[in-house]
Amino acid sequence: MLQIQKIREEKETVINSLKTKNFDATAIVESIVSLDEKKRKTQAQNDEQLSRINKASKEIGMLMGQGKKEEAEVKKGEVGQLKSTSKELGAQLQQLEKELHDELVKLPNLPHPSVPPGKSEEENEVIKTDEIPTLSESALPHWALTEKYNLIDFELGTKITGSGFPVYRGKGAKLQRALIAYFLDYNTEAGYEEFMPPHLVNEESAYGTGQLPDKEGQMYHATADNFYLIPTAEVPVTNIYRGDIIAPEKLPIKMTAYTPCFRREAGSYGKDVRGLNRLHQFDKVEIVQMVKADTSYDVLDEMVAHVEKLIQNLELPYRILRLCGGDVSFASAITYDFEVYSAAQKRWLEVSSVSNFENFQTNRMKIRTRNAEGKTELVHSLNGSSLALPRILACLLENNQTEDSIKIPKVLQSYFGAEAIN
RNA sequence: GGAGAAAUGGCAGAGUGGUCGAUUGCACUUGUCUUGAAAACAAGCGUCUGUAACAGGACCGGGGGUUCGAAUCCCUCUUUCUCCGCCA
Question: Which domains does chain A have, with CATH numbers?
Answer without folding.
Answer: 4-104 (1.10.287), 121-421 (3.30.930.10)
